[in-house]
Amino acid sequence: MTEFKVWAPRPQKVRLDVDGTVYPMTRSDDGWWSADVDARPDARYGFILDDDAKALPDPRSPRQPDGVHERSQLWQPDPGAWTDDDWPGRSIEGRAIYELHVGTFTPEGTFDSAIEKLDYLVDLGIDFVELMPVNAFGGTHGWGYDGVLWYAVHEPYGGPDGLVRLIDACHRRGLGVLIDAVFNHLGPSGNYLPKFGPYLSTGSNPWGESINIADADADEVRRYIIDCALRWMRDFHADGLRLDAVHALVDTTAIHILEELATETDALAQQLGRPLSLIAESDKNDPRLITPRDRGGYGMTAQWDDDIHHAIHAAVSGERQGYYDDFGSLEALANTLKHGYYHAGTYSSFRHRRHGRPLDTATIPATRLLAYTLTHDQVGNRAVGDRPSQNLTFGQLAVKAALALGSPYTAMLFMGEEWGSSSPFQFFSSHPEPELARATAEGRKREFAEHGWDADAIPDPQDPETFLRSKLNWGELDDGDHARLLRTYRELLALRRNEPDMADPWLDHLKIDYDEEQRWIVMHRGALAIACNLNADEVTVPVSGEVVLAWGEPVVSGDATRLEGHSFAILRAVNS
């Protein structure tokens, strides 16, 4: 017998449909309905609410083989599918993470095709693969942030069995796996949760109605979120989660849901005998996220740091629009690299108010913040999804890499950046509902037209070509400057692993010199100096030593080094 359960306090009657046969269900006082039925291990099932004719998928569905609008399917991994019993796991702190979108990472866009690229990632020097959301969402392709059945795996990628194969293959190669989880909103296609219970609050955020984590009857919704998070790490052997836009989780209770999740994640890690990591994405610059719980924080392992991205990108590219307005100077770059946040209780011209809070660099290591030169957001949320490689020289891309990977922070790459991929990463969707498809396309054009873009230049998210254009072109790897940049990334990542000075996580030990007028900056990491020339013309930097790694041909003479325009050199003090 199989026990079927569902939390559904709203309907007066719930029936269970298993392979076309309908069974009554019994309600308990806490709003849970249950029924014991003799069912096949792969039975299709759903719940019929009140007098509805259609069976709805299980809110905790383990599999959706026919899409998010149809019945669920029972699923358990093949007991022989896992071969990673000897995988010890590792923390993400100080490591190199590679963010990828399964659908555009390879031409086939599946978990199995991604496995074929894992040896490449190992050779590159990657420690963790971070998968953009793989939960079930409407349509065949999309970014994944409009998921509606958080427990199920997107079928076009290969479903839950494909994800098991990918994670197991990663672990066999010494790669950890992180999964991007979205708990701050639900997508518009296939969201049946409000029919079951009060999953949504009265508030809203930029992506829709907020999730009910603090209003009446929120306890079961919080349990729904936490159980889902633990499922990815326990049942699918993921080594941690990236938590999307946690600033949109409005929690007014005494114990924030992030603190609760971190506590239970640590308990699961103890039970499994391997480290588990939680990475928060937040625009608040609030160090409480990564402050240990015994010191009043939430106890997240790490946090995305957009200030580092903005400071590097604006300084190298010269862009100043929108949230780049406060960045661009070498002073801002040096200040951000030295202190973790640029806005730390300071005025933000983009927000028209004070923003952030200072990071205690004496007690919180830099490895609790992630440094990156781009992410899916920083590319895909641009009007036409253009990468820096489409606007900058290869030398500028190399300088950005040296600044991010040469810093004390945990490093993250976005797929293809290591060779300067020329493929855009555009916003794409495949909503099957015509009205929703039209509204998505029109809303995207209207949003950017309000910021001065030609509406006709904005790619249609629903056009299949928008999705296809965003796929990586792996044929570029061996091509000229692409291959040269790839070698530079490999060498930078190797330097992070092999040089003890590069492993020092304390910002108080970091020394930075710069010249605003000549546009050079030097990060001192023990005996190593990472000297970068952001100027198009050559400059002379007052630092010398043995050249360990460089883009261009630096000339060391006496106590100074001449750097070509848009280049860098990493030098080791001769007497070290």
UniProtKB/TrEMBL annotation:
Substrate binds at residues 242-247, 306-310, 376-381. Its EC number is 3.2.1.141. Gene3D superfamilies: E-set domains of sugar-utilizing enzymes (1.10.10.760), Glycosidases (3.20.20.80), Immunoglobulins (2.60.40.10). GO terms for cellular component: cytoplasm. One of its GO terms (molecular function) is 4-alpha-D-(1->4)-alpha-D-glucanotrehalose trehalohydrolase activity. This is Malto-oligosyltrehalose trehalohydrolase. Belongs to the glycosyl hydrolase 13 family. Residues 52-86 are annotated as: Disordered. GO terms for biological process: trehalose biosynthetic process. PANTHER family: 1,4-ALPHA-GLUCAN-BRANCHING ENZYME, MALTO-OLIGOSYLTREHALOSE TREHALOHYDROLASE. It comes from Mycolicibacterium agri.
